[in-house]
Amino acid sequence: MSNSKVVYEGWMVRYGRRKIGRSFIHMRYFVLETRLLAYYKKKPQDNVVPIKTFLIDGNCRMEDRGLKTHHGHMVYVLSVYNKKEKYHRITMAAFNIQEALIWKEKIESAIDQQQESQAANGNKFQSFEYKSGMDNGRNGSSSDNESQFSAAEDEDDSNSNLLRRTTIGNGPPESVFDWTKELDSELVNQNSNNQAFARKHWRLLQCQNGLRIFEELLEVDFLPKSCSRAMKAVGVVEATCEEIFELVMSMDATRFEWDCSFQYGSLVEEVDGHTAILYHRLQLDWFPMVVWPRDLCYVRYWRRNDDGSYVVLFRSRQHENCGPQPGFVRAHIESGGYNISPLKPRNGKPRTRVQHLMQIDLKGWGVGYVSTFQHHCLLQILNSVAGLREYFSQTDERTTAPRIPVMVNMTSASGSSKRSHKLNLSSVHRSPSLDQIQAANKNAVLMDEYSDDDEDFQCADEEALPLTVEVEDKRAAYEEPKDRIDLSIFLGNLRRDDNDKSRDCWTLSNGNNFRVRSKSFCYDKSKIPAGKHLLDLVAVDWFKDTKRMDHVARRRGCAVQVASNKGLFTIVFNLQVPGSTHYSMVFYFVTKELISGSLLQRFVDGDDEFRNSRLKLIPSVPKGSWIVRQSVGSTPCLLGKAVDCNYIRGPKYLEIDVDIGSSTVANGVLGLVIGVITTLVVDMAFLVQACTTDELPEKLIGAVRVSHLELSSAIVPILESESAEPSKS
């Protein structure tokens, strides 16, 4: 590091694209000095040479590129470059908006200081004027222009007194009406040929759930059935604008906690950093047995204004990859969105005014024949503002800003529009489950902190390329090896059935249903969907006996012995359930070989103290009574610390006998579960906890889902003699 004063430093995401077109993100340590921006693999010490440096002067520009999708992950992207050296730039990103805005402000300030210094010394530099395509009222500070350089760069030096370095975007798409702006009569006249720009007049309709509900005043006495009246809800939320904005933009499971009208959402197409096409299913409670459910396909645009407020705008549109869905009525949004504005803090707590407007035609016979249908459903949608208020009022956690949530992509699962349409038609008969939404993206790509190969093979115009997820690349990244394990040779007494409605069976649980420590966990405590399992679950046994069943791997003909004969290695989890009748649920995870030096290999060959400190279980109850779900929870648990674990190391296997009855707490929960076990669907993921950057990200050993288990289906095993007992270490 140089001797210059450090202005700001910290971990950020290095964002770029390879020559083949795929994007990449790497965790890097960025350091901003008064005249220099640099980044390193690790926090620099002594005279460490940075990976890349960028000289800051008055000709530099700071571009806010908005939200980008990287294989399902949403990141907030910033780019700084020099106007005179067009291909010399650094592009960085953050998983939360607060951190991105801090870096944006610091870099802009450094650019302004260099401009002032050069002006004082009589040195001229190229400058430019910023103009917004919707430059009225408040100015937006986010760039919507996805080209690498704006046309304004070709201007002369006549505007050398401008200090702001942020590129201003071109405003929302033409079809989207920005209802948040107070437009004067001159602008109305200028745009009269495009759409009905006019000042809306409102009257207070009612107060509900602490919200003021307004209705649009119309100049006509009669409103045709094909037209809908705009309504908006206004409330105050004790949270920052950024926190509220991140929730409003979410389409994951978090939305269920504050939006009672939300059922499912998907990303259809990412147009640019500020505009996206979304598919959205509404959960309306107006006689659902009679009225067909509604869905939406709409364009969503957002921007951040100079005063710190956020604007999110909606308008329906058609898209080739999001056609009408059988069993749904396609509603139409004329205008809608959120206006999130900061207020003065009170008692040390942030306060934000949230306006939610919706002008929607729900279509169908209910709108034309039942006047209360549209009004009731619209109030339900607007009530999300009260949901936001209660969401934040019921928690004191403000220390860690949440990541920008992930959205499921409708088109990435198919290679063409036709295949995507078929997928939509086949999947519409049942609504996506909460697990599917939590999974978010089956092909989430992990960040590599220590590889700089991508930085040596970037395109010169990397930021000019559209950010798309290549289906072929995703398929290659997760392609199954040609020499897959033959699962047909393994057999357990509990059958496998992949049908969601099946009973007394098991199936594989999607690894993305579980969140594990990311590559950057040591720095930002972030977690990511787990992805693909390390081992294959080949069989499950369900045993019972009058005594506890230890070392079940010695049972003749079991999956362990079959795997050993084939030269395969097995990890066995024997979950022992105590009682008047003892039960054991046994899972067999198989792999061809353990990778030498890997965390899993060190776990298998380590001592019991190391194993107990690392063996982790992530439980979940997707289906069951509320009290059971609350008792079991979904918090990761270090099994070796919570209950007694006995490790039996054989020549080609490691068996882990987990005595659940050894813990009073676990035994109490188990007593609750056993009584209703036939009504439960239980997910379990096993993994070795990663504690250092070399071990991260975490990977699952395997995951399983057990559905509606019957106690009567357990069998009494015949265990071989313990005369030739393997090492218990």
Q: Radius of gyration from the CA trace?
A: 29 Å
Largest sheet: 11 strands, mixed
- Report the β-strand fraction as a percent range: 25-35%
Percentage of residues in helical conformation: 10-25%
**Total beta strands:** 30
- Residue-averaged pLDDT, rounded? 76
Q: Which structural class should the secondary elements be placed in?
A: alpha+beta
> Count of DSSP helices?
17
How far apart lie the N and C ends?
48 Å
Shape from CA axes? globular
Low-pLDDT segments, ≥5 res? 125-170, 182-198, 412-482
Your description of this structure?
By secondary structure, the protein is α+β, with helices and mostly antiparallel strands. The chain is 19% helix and 31% strand. The chain contains 17 helices and 30 strands. The strands form 5 sheets. Strands 8, 9, 10, 11, 12, 13, 14, 15, 16, 17 and 18 form an 11-stranded mixed β-sheet that branches. Strand 23 and strand 24 (582-591) form a beta hairpin. The radius of gyration is 29 Å and the shape is globular.
